[in-house]
Design brief:
With 146 residues, the chain is mainly α. It is built from five helices and no strands. The chain has one domain. α3 runs antiparallel to α4. The chain is globular.
């Protein structure tokens, strides 16, 4: 399957809105809202990254990502989420709704749990629950015109 940009966004938001929330609940049981803030910020940043991924994907001969490239993208996103948000946004820009007072080990544990849930579901559950998803560029909501 070669996902379209809309398909990437729909899949990302569906999986982060369901499995991402389920993976975040155990982290926030003691009342910390930082984990839901991180989840929201990662979902938003991921949608921005999807624009670049969609363009890079057109340069590949098969126009598709292998699982190893998805793994690399997950590592890339983690690095470019944590570093700018930890230092730039919390210390310089002072964005109020996102407090970046989270240690690297807690962030990585949370991020890996979210990423593994989303990656595993996109490789398995999505193909079972939404069989047409694979044949419509990753779009699980698509127009009847097709």
């Amino acid at each position: 399957m070669t996902p379209t940009l809309i398909g990437r966004w729909q899949t990302r938001l569906l999986l982060f809105g369901t499995l991402g929330v389920l993976a975040t609940i155990p982290f926030s049981l003691n009342g910390e809202t930082i984990y839901f803030q991180i989840l929201l910020a990662i979902a938003f940043l991921g949608c921005l990254w999807d624009i670049a991924y969609n363009q890079l994907q057109t340069l590949r001969w098969d126009r598709d990502w292998s699982a190893i490239m998805q793994l690399a993208a997950g590592i890339w996103e983690a690095f470019f989420f944590y570093v700018p948000f930890k230092f730039l946004i919390s210390n310089i820009l002072k964005i109020g709704w996102l407090s970046a007072d989270i240690p690297l080990d807690k962030f990585l544990l949370h991020y890996v749990c979210i990423w593994l849930a989303v990656f595993t579901a996109s490789q398995t559950l999505m193909r079972i629950i939404f069989p047409r998803w694979r044949f419509h560029g990753g779009e699980w909501i698509y127009s009847a015109k097709r």
